[in-house]
User: Which sequence fits this backbone?
């Protein structure tokens, strides 16, 4: 019970900007695998994002998602011009 009263007193006297900062850092860390999956263009980025919600409660599951996001297969979202020409050659 002492721990609970400590946190009650701490957050009652804390600056709202500090509380917002802690909340933002927590959200960024919680969804870090999803952010990495989107930035690294991973095939299962949407699945990783959904899985981040329950995985945030378990360090083992979160670590697994982190590894999946970093080592997963990439998806080519933009076709380069040279590749597009190889697929559809121009007819003269």
Assistant:
């Amino acid at each position: 019970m002492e721990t609970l009263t400590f946190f009650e007193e701490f957050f009652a006297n804390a600056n709202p900007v500090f509380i917002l900062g802690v909340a933002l850092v927590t959200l960024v860390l919680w969804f870090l695998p999803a952010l990495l999956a989107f930035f690294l263009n991973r095939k299962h980025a949407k699945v990783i994002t959904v899985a981040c919600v329950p995985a945030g409660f378990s360090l083992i599951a979160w670590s697994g998602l982190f590894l999946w996001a970093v080592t997963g297969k990439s998806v080519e979202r933009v076709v380069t011009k040279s590749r597009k020409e190889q697929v559809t050659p121009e007819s003269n």
Residues 16-30 form the longest helix (15 residues). The two ends are 82 Å apart (CA to CA). The CA atoms of residues 41 and 74 lie 5 Å apart. The chain has a mean pLDDT of 83.
